[in-house]
Amino acid sequence: MEALVKYDKGPGNVRLQEMPEPKVENGMVLLEVNSCGICGTDLHVYHDTFKNYPPVILGHEFSGRVVDKGNHTDGIALGQRYSVLGALTVICNDCEYCHSGEFMFCKAKRGMGHGVNGAFTKYVAARPDQLYATADHVSDDVSALVEPFAVAVHAVGEIAHLQFGDTVLLSGPGPIGMLLLKMLLAQGIKTIVAGTSEDADKLETAKTWGAHTVVKVDQEDLQAIVRDETQGKGVDIAFETAGAAASAANCLQAIRPLGQYVQVGHFGKDIRIPFDLSAFRQLTIKGSVGYTRATWDRAIEIINQGTIRLEDVITHRMPLTDWKKGFELMEQKKALKILLSPQ
Which helix (H) or strand (E) holds 191? Predict the structure, then answer.
């Protein structure tokens, strides 16, 4: 089968090539991929700034239909569509983090798309416990968004402590940032979205969706706007989703004393920021990485209820053969979510 493979260590070293189809073993099911989203992690693997184990098939945001299954897979029906929790493909199931459901911190963890073969291809093998079914009324494409949406649900719904009346700064209107915005707006949170002039289209989209204020930080004074919008207090919570030093600094400077800072973006390198502000303002600093099984249950329920619309997060649909174009659009910040489909 044709697959998008990181075939060797180092920047680049990604190509379409033939890979063997996964075998249907006992306790496993075989899914035919509907579509798979390009994630920032895929770009990090491409640039070799995220740990990976080549040769490995990229891609981890996907849905697919069961086309075959081994023994000991009761309850899984052929033809059924599932979203797949690829991050727990390899875990030890024995450490304190696995026992508590926080499998993201298992030292043995290897997820799809960087640690084990992922879904930029036609067929993927998975265990039944990795399969999450969305309702029949949910489209195949939205079902492919459960993984990135779960990241947003975790950050906004489980890591941060939001209250009605809060004002939030969301710095970085990329795919994950815009999914966070969906969660914030659904809760009626006054949200200021900050980006650069390169993010003009996404900032306009954020405004259309209901963001209270959008700011181009290279053309406007973000801190002055924050003061105006908060009567001089500063924002209650800042979510950093851009993975950029300037963005992190802007967030820290914008938060009121006793406020919260939530780091969601990945920098991929060491950065310099005014971290003394965390002490001087007695901030609560939290990181948000991935999700738990419970997060996936919550994300599926939110999607099934239909109160948060995700179709408009998808800006491009392409065949897998156009992966280079898709990666370039993401690098150039000209897309939100791009779905690649096997031929």
Answer: strand 190-195
Q: What is the pLDDT of residue 268?
A: 82
SS3 22: coil
Is a pLDDT exceeding 90 seen at residue 343?
no
Residue/partner pairs of 15-18 with CB below 8 Å, 24 or more apart = 16/320, 16/321, 16/323
Residue 79, Cβ neighbours under 10 Å: how many? 8
What does the DSSP 8-state code read for residue 277? H
309 three-class SS: coil
| pLDDT tens per residue, range 210-230 | 999 999 999 999 999 999 999
DSSP secondary structure code for residue 229 in this structure: H
pLDDT: is 207 or 268 the higher one?
207
Give the torsion through C-alpha atoms of 157, 161, 164, 166, to 10 deg.
-120
- The SS3 assignment for 1 reads coil
Listed in sequence order, the residues at least 6 apart from 240 whose beta carbon sits closer than 8 Å to its beta carbon are 171, 172, 247, 248, 251, 261, 262, 263, 264, 265
Output the furthest CA–CA distance in the chain (Å, rounded): 63
**Structure token pair of residue 208:** 């259309």
Pairwise CA distance, residues 146 & 264, whole Å: 17
132-176: pLDDT as tens digits: 999 999 999 999 999 999 999 999 999 999 999 999 999 999 999
Joined together, the tokens standing for residue 237 give 């919570």
What is the mean pLDDT of the segment spanning 79-105? Answer: 94
CA distance 303 to 310: 8
Q: Evaluate if residue 30 carries a pLDDT over 90.
A: yes
pTM value?
Answer: 0.95
Whether residue 123 contacts residue 30, with contact meaning beta carbons closer than 8 Å, is answered with yes
Say if residue 55 is preceded by a cis peptide, omega within 30 of 0.
Answer: yes
DSSP string, 169-218: EEE--SHHHHHHHHHHHHTT-EEEEEE-GGGHHHHHHHHHHT-SEEEETT
Q: What does the alpha-carbon distance between residue 241 and residue 290 come to, in Å, rounded to a whole number? A: 13
Dihedral sign (CA 55, 124, 317, 337): negative
Give the dihedral of Cα atoms 199, 318, 296, 214; nearest 10 deg.
Answer: 10
